[in-house]
Structure formats: C-alpha cells, structure tokens
Amino acid sequence: MEILLLRYTNILIFIVSNVKNIQILYVKRKEGLKDNLAKETNMEKKVAVLIPCYNEELTVEKVVKDFKRELPQADIYVFNNNSKDRTEELAKNAGAIVVNEYKQGKGNVVRSMFRDVDADIYVMVDGDDTYPASEVHKLIEVIALGKADMAVGDRLSNGTYENENKRSFHNFGNNLVKNTINFIFKTNLNDIMTGYRAFNREFVKNFPVLCEGFEIETEMTFHALDRNYKVVEVPITYKDRPEGSTSKLNTFSDGFKVIMTIFNMFKNYKPLTFFSIVSIIFMAFALIIGVPLFVEYYETGLVTKFPRGIVATGLVICSVLFFAIGVILDTLVKQHKEELEILRIINCKKGE
Length: 352
Fold this sequence. Notes:
The chain is elongated, with a radius of gyration of 28 Å. The chain has a seven-stranded mixed β-sheet with strand order 3-2-1-4-6-5-7, sandwiched between helices. The protein has 13 helices and seven strands. The protein folds into three domains: about 1-40; about 45-270, Spore Coat Polysaccharide Biosynthesis Protein SpsA, Chain A (Alpha-Beta Complex), CATH 3.90.550; about 270-350. The protein has about 350 residues and is of the alpha/beta class.
C-alpha cells in the first residue's frame, strides 16, 4: 500500500512540475492542426488567378509561369485587352487560359472576369511583373479562413512602393486617394490603388462594375467599405516594372478620373454627408453676403443694397434644398442597403 501511494505521489509531482511543458505542447499541437486545416481548405477550394493585360509581352509569360509554379492546381486566366504585341501568344505558350476583351479599359476587363470566371477564391494581379507570385498564399489564406471578403496586397506600409516607384506624382496620388477614402469612411487603410487582390465568391458575384478604366480599384474599395465586407490588408513587396516595360496609367488624365470617381461615389454612397457639405458652403456664402445687410438695417433702419439681399436669400434657399436632397437620398440609400443585405442572406442560405 505504501509503495502504491509513493508511486502515485511521484506521478503527481511529475505532472505538476511539467504542467508548463504540457501546456506548450498542447498549444503547438492546436496551432499545427489549425495550419493543416487551412492547407486542406485551400486544396479543396477552386482558385482562379485573373491577369488583365494590355501590351505586356515583356512580362506576361513570366507572370503566368510564376503563378503556375505557386498554384499548380489553380486556373490561370489572362484577359487580353486589345494588345497589339505578342501578349496573347506568349500567355498561351505559358499555359494560361486566354480570353479576349474587346471593350477597352481595365474596368471593362474586370467586369468580364468577374462575370465569366467561376471559382471559390479569385486572385487578381497585374501582368507587369511588379507583384511577387510567392506572396499569393498570404492573400489566399485570409480568404480561405473567412477572415476577409477582400484581401488587399498592401505595397505602401513597408515602403517598397515608395522606394521602387520612379513616378513621384503616383505617390502623391496614392496618398490623396487613401486619405480621402479614410476620411469618408473613417477607416485606416494603407493602399487603395494596388492591383494585387484576392476575393471570395460572394464579393465577386455581387460587385457591380460601373467604371471603365483604372478607377476600378477605387470603386472596389468603396463598394467593400460601404457594403460592410471584411477587408484585410496583407503587406507585400513591390518592384518596379522591368526595363523596356511602360506603364499604361496616365498620371494626370487617369488621376483626374480617379478623383472624379471618388467625387461621384462619395455623392452616391454618402449623400447626406456630401449634400450637407454643399449646404454648409452655400449657407456660408449667404451669411457673408447677408450679415452686412442685417447690420446696416439694424444701424440705419434701411437696406440700400437690394441685389445683395436677393442673392443672399437665393443662397439660403439653395442651402436648405441641398440639405433636404441629402436627407431624402440618404433614406433611399439606407433602404437599398437593407434590400441588398436581405439578398445576401438569401444567397448565403441557397449556397448552403
């Protein structure tokens, strides 16, 4: 009996002294099971890599081969947008599925990609070899685990874009767009204009593409934030285009289009805020013009500048009307959001 009691006592002492090690082993095993589950989930899901291209003969073959090496089970699509060089030929030789989109513009290409390609996870990357294929797994992982509806390859937070990019106005434009959208939606995103993204099926099949050109990335971000989709930024490395390859993005004309897109989408997605700002501007001008007239009337009992009074009154009326328009449109937008949310719930139940 004493021997048995001594054995149990020794076992208890061993367990107590090694409880920390046991906890560490348990945590490691749990993390290992989680990683294995994530890998199995990635293997089960159908992945499509979407590469929009316009005159990218210098880089498209390498981009396709890099992604085929990283994602051997994925379907690699190259959407050729009226290229005048050997982009289509080289993409086919590299093993990509080539689709021709004859309506010019990146927005039109994305519309066709999202409409025609069927998959569980979508990866969109430019065909200029500026984004590393080796980092695609980080984007896919957050989608596969359900952490994000849209994973964004963030070039800016680690400074690689600023170091590699030779066009200073592009850095200025990126910061302008980023700060404007963060102000509108009260978020803290780092990279709005990146061309390296991953999406789940729900986002792709419910995203209405309205623009035609390089404004598409801005439109995606607006849509995701306004519709409460989960957006996760994944830091990636960026390298500039290889020598001989030229950007299709025009700094000033495309930059102006992006700014106009922000303006229009701010009006469409946040009408109360937008028209309230317009209303305040009109009211401010009305006060600047009208207050001296009130002062003059208070001091003399007369108003000698009737035209100013008429203009001030007109500005006040416009201010009130703009605010009323904002209230009405905001009500309609909220009603539209409720309807879309109901449709999302119905589609999710159908998918189950």
